[in-house]
Amino acid sequence: MDxxxxxxxxxLCGRVEIQGSKNAVxxxxxxxxxxxxxxxxxxxxxxxxxxxxIVILELLGCRVWWEGHCxxxxxxxxxxxxxxxxxxxxxxxxILFLGxxxxxxxxxxxxxxxxxxxxxRPVDLHIKAMKDLGAQVEEKExxxxxxxxxxxxxxxxxxxxxxxxxxxxxxxxxRAEGVTVIKNAAREPEIGELCLFLRxxxxxxxxxxxxxxxxxxxxxxxxxxxxxxxxxIVAGTYMLAAAITxxxxxxxxxxxxxxxxVTAVFENMGIKIERIGCDVIVDGSRKRRNIGFLETAPYxxxxxxxxxxxxxxxxxxxxxxxxxxxxxxxRFKTAHQLKAMGADIELKEREAIIHGVPALHGTQVExxxxxxxxxxxxxxxxxxxxxxxxGCHYISRGYENICGILSDLGAEIVTVHQ
Length: 418
Ligand code: EPZ
Fold this sequence. Notes:
Strand content: 25-35%
Bound molecules: ligand EPZ
Structural class: alpha+beta
Helix content: 25-40%
Largest sheet: 4 strands, mixed
Strand order of the largest sheet: 21-22-1-23
CATH architecture of the largest domain: Alpha-beta prism
CATH superfamily of the largest domain: Enolpyruvate transferase domain
CATH class of the largest domain: Alpha Beta
């Protein structure tokens, strides 16, 4: 699927069950390497980033197989500690094998990670933390070479609550000697889920409210089965699909307890959200209010991953709104594509000033990263006429069966192979 054509203007109605969380399962799959046995993950999403991570696990010596929507990983026979560049370059989360392999093998060799180009995305915090745990780390020719016979627990303070760096420290600390304390750790739900997965395997990890995590290393791990949380960014994307098309979508498996900042924005805009049992019904049929100002922030703030999809909605919401992107320095690329569809957006450094227009018009646009692709899908669902979105391989990295789901909700969407 590299291009899709969407004929816009149809209110989407129906029901969608939210897939397992991409950003939770990727560190969990790396964590499987820490255990000489089998780990099972229920509700594992069938998305490209998972498929690519399975390739990495198999290259390291793991056996991996599907049992329906459950993914099983047998990491009893790991023989490798190097990750080939061509696979690691596809996604940012390949960096998480740094901590996992150091923990399991005492060494790791991997290229700088790839993934969505949202700015520089350095890995300095990751590398400094591995050094803090006693690793020798060399960076040469675009590769990271780390070695440490036995990582030693330490108190590590992150100057920024980096999600990936927090995950890497946890992965390396589980099999380290002694206690590791992380201060100013990221608090995204995916961190809690990684800790839960590891506790289910017997690890001794304690989380404290002020962004402090304690890992007591050296505990023997065991086989386990984990039920993956639903993906809060995918859920937010389908909520936006109801709002932008004026439809009504029932969302099953909505991780509402991790979406307070998102649902608050919807309710402030006058978008009706009703809870019935474990379903959430999003009704976008009523007139929306503008939000005025929105900024992204580390959890529990508004997630940066919904910034571009929200921009698509604000592009067709009357009045002026401003979005400030505080996490990534280059996450407004999609604005240029939305402007080609008729959106009125002005970019000023870290801010986008948006004046809502009555309609967008279909044209050919190009996705450049995962959540930007989702924003273009949303804009296409609203636009008059047909929108051809190229670069759709980005969206298959994180959204399982999005074309099938949108079509079931009433969208006129076809994949175009060119
Ligand atoms: C994770 O990326 C997510 N990816 C991102 O989702 C998400 O946007 C991001 O967290 C923030 O929530 C996965 O979980 C696979 P960070 P990560 O380290 O770990 C800077 C998506 O669309 N930084 O918290 O890379 C960095 O440049 C993806 O699903 C350093 O300076 O995020 C950025 O400005 C996109 N040095 C900020 O911190 C470092 O060593 C946040 O990065 C690490 C990060």
